[in-house]
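Case study.
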Amino acid sequence: MTKEMIYMVGIIAICTFVTILTRSLPFICFSKRKLSPIMDHLAKALPRAIMVILVIYCLKDMTLNSWIDNIPEMISCMLVFLLQYRYKNMYLAIVCGTLCYMLFIHII
Amino acid sequence: MKELKFAFKQTLPILFSYVFMGIAFGIMLVQLGYHAIWAIAFAVFVYAGSLQFALIGLIQAQGSIWQAALMALFINARHIFYGLSFIERFRKIDWRRFYLIFSLTDETYSVLCNLLCPKELDEDKVIFLISLLDHLYWIVGCTLGAIIKEALPFGLEGIEFSATAFFLVVVIKQWQENQDHFPAIIGLISGLSCLCLFKADNFLIFALISCAAFLLLYEAFNKRRKE
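After joint prediction, the assembly is written out as follows.
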């Protein structure tokens, strides 16, 4: 094995291990025990909070730009919001929002 | 077969985002001078989008394996919070749950959170197929990028926005389907305040910790009030 191969195998192995570790930690912790009522509530409430945080995470780079560079994100998100809120059709909202964003990116 | 069709429909919003981001990753890795096989290995085994992009920088700088481990720990610590909501659900699934846990990425998590499986379908199978399809999209993307080695000839820039749009749709759906908006509001407050307090690159884990802490406090307080 060359040095480069050992390096890449090492990186992939350690990152796979750590990623599996973080993903399986809650399952390992609660493999035998039942969730306490409070933890059960938390488990049910968390996804709704996490999804909001994930949206913020996707848009986080907006804080690095001036507001004028953020117009594509702002308009596209607004469009997704309006379509989903009004028509409750996930595919319509995502397709239109993404196309709107792509159009902006290509024009600017 | 019905399960596959249903699962495919659920993962459609992820398909474009994963394939395109995967292509971007594949291109970056082969441009560093590595063989395409490495990009595929990353997609199959590591299977973590933001970590893989961060690793490109590390590999370029020939950072140590321990640095990579630390990076993986820090970037992926958020997954600890994802699993929490599926402990009871996954417990009922056979050996396939080990794969489900391995492949619980941001995107798969959001699809599964949003899942409303029709009664006539086998839900365990649907969950498994959703996870598997998402993983396949990522592998296809990374492989394509590593093979074509350069940006696609036609402009697909911006298609990764479909993941953002999907997350936003899930938020709106959850808002409309639930009476109690407290968790969403806590998420918004902790997300925005941590984004202001910390650098954009690493606010995520702080936001998750603070929102979980707030929600726990809230539950504890509620319970005491009821007693």
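Observations recorded in class. The two ends of chain A are 48 Å apart (CA to CA). The first helix of chain A runs from residue 3 to 29. We will return to this complex in the next lecture.
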